[in-house]
Amino acid sequence: MNAQKPDHMKSAWTSPDPTRGSHPWHRFVALGDSFTEGIGDPEPGSEGGVRGWADRAAEELSAGQPEFAYANLAVRGLLLQQILDQQLGPALALKPDLVTLSAGGNDIVFRRSDPDRMAEKMDDAVATLTATGATVVLFAGPDWGAIPVFSQIRGKVAIFNENLHTVAAHHDAVMVDMWSLRELTDPGMWDPDRLHFSPLGHHTIAAAMLNALGVSHSLRPLEPKQLPPPSWKEARAEDLVWAREYLVPWVVRRLRQRSPEEGLTAKRPQAGPVFGIGRPPGPLAGGSAA
Questions:
Q1: CA neighbor of 203 nearest in space, from 287, 118, 98, 104
Q2: In whole angstroms, what is the distance from residue 35 CA to residue 141 CA?
Q3: What is the C-alpha to C-alpha distance for residues 261 and 83, in angstroms, rounded to an integer?
Q4: Residue 285 CB neighbour total at 10 angstroms
Q5: 82 has pLDDT over 80
Q6: Can you say how many angstroms the Cα of residue 35 is from the centroid of all Cα atoms in its chain?
């Protein structure tokens, strides 16, 4: 399935043509790490206690299609090779006709991995998935340039993103370009840890994915209360608190090769019906969580 790259800084809320009708997919499997698992979007009523963009997109895709099935194999904290080793085989066994693959964020952020070598692994994985006839969706990473600590890796993220665009073009995959989504520069789109998206961020990404697939949907942009931008002094104070409470503990655990994510399993390892169609598709206006 062909998909056009989004225009520079394109909005997630450019709705597809509603005359396109129903979509052709019946079995959706999501592969990845915490981004795809849904960390940052807590929901007690969802599998694993988190919802996330994949669940939100699956809810929309299942509307009016009682036979639609969805599995989410993502596990937080995994590196790219771990995702491929642990999730590619089980995904193929589920025989999906729609697959999302997002991997490599942990490699770049915490391991400073080579984006070219990572892209080679992604190319092989996408080739394997598309050989089954499934539509494959990839995600270009967001622009973390505004976060001082992550500004050092901005170049590697950009290179990896361009490589992913090439992989997508080579295998006729669909690309969701988060780097170009202007909404994601809003602090309200992010969890306080600045590593994961908030409920509103996940909601926005779900809409961007559906639009990239050309699927009409009921998701609508929300208008959370705008906060005044902090002063330079306040912003630097927030950076210090964030580094102390979030970044440093995570890096220390990685250096010691111990992680609280060890032993975790996928929240939806089997493809099954999607629940929660009647729930609101995102946080309420004003920024409250879904």
A1: 287
A2: 10
A3: 13
A4: 10
A5: yes
A6: 5
Give the containing element (helix H, strand E) for 160.
Answer: helix 154-171
Q: What percent of the chain has pLDDT over 70?
A: 73
Reply yes or no on whether the pLDDT at 243 is more than 80.
no
Bridge partners (DSSP) of residue 29 are 71, 99
Q: In Å, what is the CA distance from 168 to each residue of 12, 19, 257?
A: 19, 26, 33
Task: State the residue for tokens 């908030």.
Answer: 198
Q: Which two structure tokens, joined as six digits, stand for 8?
A: 């520079």
Residues 5/25/103/72 CA torsion (nearest 10 deg): 150
DSSP β-bridge partners for residue 30 = 72, 100
Q: Given phi > 0 = left and psi -120 to 50 = alpha, else beta, which region is 116?
A: alpha
pLDDT in tens, 152-200: 889 999 999 999 999 999 999 999 999 999 899 888 999 998 889 999 9
What is the SS3 assignment for 102?
Answer: coil
pTM of the entire predicted model: 0.78
Write out the E strands in the chain: 27-31, 69-72, 98-101, 135-140, 174-177, 268-272
Domain parsing of the chain, residue ranges: 18-221+265-272
* Residue 20: pLDDT over 50: no
DSSP, res 219: -
Rounded-to-integer distance, Cα 285 and Cα 269, Å: 33
Instruction: Taking residues 25-52, report their average pLDDT.
Output: 93
Reported as half-sphere exposure (CB side, CA atoms, 13 A), residue 173 has a value of 32
Mean pLDDT of the chain: 82
In the block, tokens 């170049």 appear at 155
Token code pair at residue 262: 């060890």
Q: What is the sign, positive or negative, of the torsion defined by CA atoms of 125, 140, 31, 169? A: negative
Both structure tokens of 235:
């912003």
Q: Which CATH architecture has domain 18-221+265-272?
A: 3-Layer(aba) Sandwich (3.40)
